[in-house]
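Researcher: Let's try something more involved. This one mixes different molecule types, so please make sure each is placed in the same coordinate frame as the others.
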Amino acid sequence: MKIVDSVSRMSTFTRLLKKEAKTIGFVPTMGYLHEGHLSLVRAAKKHDDTAVMSIFVNPIQFGPKEDFDKYPRDFKRDEELARSAGVDVLFYPSVKDMYPHGYATYVAVEALSSALCGASRPGHFKGVATVVAKLFGIVRPDIAYFGQKDAQQAIIIKKMAEDLHMGVEIKMMPTIREPDGLAISSRNIYLTDDERSDALVLSRSLERAGHLIKHGEKNPKKVLTAINDMIKEKPSVKIDYVSIAGTKDLKEVDTIGSEVLIAIAAYVGRTRLIDNIIIKAALSAIPK
Amino acid sequence: MKIVDSVSRMSTFTRLLKKEAKTIGFVPTMGYLHEGHLSLVRAAKKHDDTAVMSIFVNPIQFGPKEDFDKYPRDFKRDEELARSAGVDVLFYPSVKDMYPHGYATYVAVEALSSALCGASRPGHFKGVATVVAKLFGIVRPDIAYFGQKDAQQAIIIKKMAEDLHMGVEIKMMPTIREPDGLAISSRNIYLTDDERSDALVLSRSLERAGHLIKHGEKNPKKVLTAINDMIKEKPSVKIDYVSIAGTKDLKEVDTIGSEVLIAIAAYVGRTRLIDNIIIKAALSAIPK
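Model: All components are placed in one shared frame. Result:
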């Protein structure tokens, strides 16, 4: 595994790969790798000649009161995990190299960025879209892999890549879960044992919502009530939002007909967690 | 000359050129071609295997009270001029193809877009950066050519291409002028004879400013006063701004040391015209 820690060396290297007509599969991450990230690497290994992973905790996607400084980091551990998963090139740039003095350019996928997580995290998705646009420019992937866990992120990046003709195919891969259903997240390490147990209500209420819809429920209000009622039983869980929205425009739906995204964000203790399912009326859950 | 009027066909064609390792020189325009545009085509013909020109009057860079609807258009005339200048591929997309229903992504070069023309045209440079990002994605140029006439635009695009690692070299080419000095612009056709005559004060006051600086003047206030005094003598000319700014950050300078951009925007009658020079203290004008 090659480790590249400068933007210019990474650009040079990816241009070389393109000249050799090698396809590049790309997994952008903020590190503190877990099974979710590694499943994306395995998908890239299967489809592409070269699997590139980036590790970059992107300051501009964190709000002033968010956890940028305390976001978990452990490069040595990540390096070993990346190597064992078969990453060919690990790109690990510094903040100063990504955002040098005088940096000025931002990308916003406006209509999709104020919904769901965008409402409580203003500027978050502008930060995400900007760093991914930069990473796509540096890495020049053919395919980039994102987890459905961050469905809004994946949908926004897909829209950006289409709108700006970036020539990158975006693949949204299934959320990886613990055996008991909790969606795997780098932020799960913040949870106490009790919070970890209460946090299960997120995946379970989504399962319940999926069950209702599979059995014919088309009224989003009834499904939302079922989710809210379940979550309210857990004292350490405070809902940020629960939303049933279209998977293209992220607008809340009046009736559950075509494919919808059911997304939850909640504080479990002081830790903000998200989870979601994508489902069609009267069909089983279909991760895209 | 090949004419391509769809985004998808143009994308397919430019990917084919890249596969054949042909270099692409690109001249994005809003049509109503004049000698300024054609000089850019000639530069592209000299440096690159294939010269691509786009003609697209970009709605999102016009303000609600600006001249989008009445902006001059004459495709047949443009087609002949492009052919005669040696354009290999003329890309002529529709608004609906560039901004389909649900279009959502915008690019802003924030720090550079509020200065100079950005102050009186809010959103203008966001519209410009967005359309050029799209065109770069579709056309995949090695080099893109912009006229110094729109120096702020060229500086913003250069910054965007660097910040987002677009792999496109931006060349700013000298402003083309009428024999009497008026900078050539598609908007010059709006001028009456008297306005056309008064409009000469723009290039002449810039010449005067250049003369002062070449003879040692380093105080921007004195140079600005000289320009303002000359312009005020012309009754049909109303200054929007006169600015002496750094060519990298477009911030107004306290002293004329390194390279500066002296830029003027003024209404001549109801027509807004711009002109500029780039100059170093005690040296002759150096178009980049």
